[in-house]
Amino acid sequence: MKTREEKRFQVMGNIVMVILSLCALLPMVLLVVSSLTDNDTLIQNGYNFIPMKWSIYAYTYIFSTGSAVIRAYGVSIVLTIIGTTLSLCITTLLAYALAKKGLPGRGALTFYVFFTMLFNGGLVPTYMNYTNTFGIKNTFLALLIPGLLANGFNILLMKSYFVSAVPDEILEAAYIDGATEFQTFSRVALPLAKPIVATIALFAGIAYWNDWQNGYVYLTTRTDLYSIQNLLNRMMQNIQFLTQNSGNISNANVGLAAIPSVSVRMAMAVVGVLPIILVYPFIQSNFVKGITLGGVKG
């Protein structure tokens, strides 16, 4: 039987959670509605949850390129799958090793991983290294390799999970049964770490899907390798260029009249974020559990 104070606290907690949920949900609803609003109506009346005139012309404009959008989606999907898989392999192996108390130099290696969260080499040295030494410019590897290097936060998060949620007794029992270190990792520790693996997979997948900087920096001639983010960014730059220089370019106003310059921004955001929204519900439970247990102790 709950006391009056407990019931009051539960009601207040539910109210706060409803408010926070609305704060997260309403901007997404407004984004989708704005992308389906007529461009002229959006300019005249601003953003509304119930527009005076609906239109799908912004999406028609984006997908008017046809094969370019489909190809960009394909590049993003392949990049996300390969990048996420390789990132998980690197992160789980290194985190498992750092979680072993008997690892020689464990403290120094952990500090080295943590140090990468504070400092990096900078854009110019990184660019020179990747282009001159590794020669990945204008290749698919230019989208994959820069983001493949181990993320310090993900490694430390998974290390904390291995330490706090995978009992040493279970690992010792596997050793006694004759399992090798890799067998213990793959058949015992990794299955127990499914929540944190799903969490890190979500982090890595979102990072690869939303990345546009690598394509912007390293893909100068191979526009056919553009991901969906790079393609949408290039389309937005073209629209901004026409808008800012309409007075200096002949017939620019005619072209601008056919471009949904405002609503297309909302449609681009929807096109870019939609796959993540569709995937997230399937790993939400593991994501919450992984974050909760992975942050218990270091």
Notes on the protein architecture:
The protein has helices spanning 4-35, 39-45, 57-62, 67-99, 106-115, 123-133, 141-144, 152-165, 168-176, 181-192, 194-210, 213-218, 228-244, 252-257, 263-294. It is mainly alpha-helical. α4 packs across α8, α4 packs across α13 (228-244) and α8 (152-165) runs parallel beside α15 (263-294). It is flat, with a radius of gyration of 24 Å.
Q: How would you describe the oligomerization state of the chains in this entry?
A: single chain
Radius of gyration: 24 Å
Beta fraction: under 5%
Write the H/E string, N to C.
Answer: HHHHHHHHHHHHHHH
Kindly state the percentage of residues in helix: over 70%
Counting helices, strands and paired strands, the structural category is: mainly alpha
Helix run count: 15
Low-confidence parts: 294-298
How would you state the average pLDDT, rounded?
81
Task: Summarize, please.
With 298 residues, this protein is mainly α. Helix content is 72%, strand content 0%.
How is the topology of this model organized?
Layout: H1 4-35, H2 39-45, H3 57-62, H4 67-99, H5 106-115, H6 123-133, H7 141-144, H8 152-165, H9 168-176, H10 181-192, H11 194-210, H12 213-218, H13 228-244, H14 252-257, H15 263-294
Helix pairs in contact: 1-15, 4-8, 4-11, 4-13, 5-8, 8-11, 8-15, 9-10, 11-15
Which key phrases capture this entry?
298 residues; mainly alpha; 0% strand; disordered C terminus
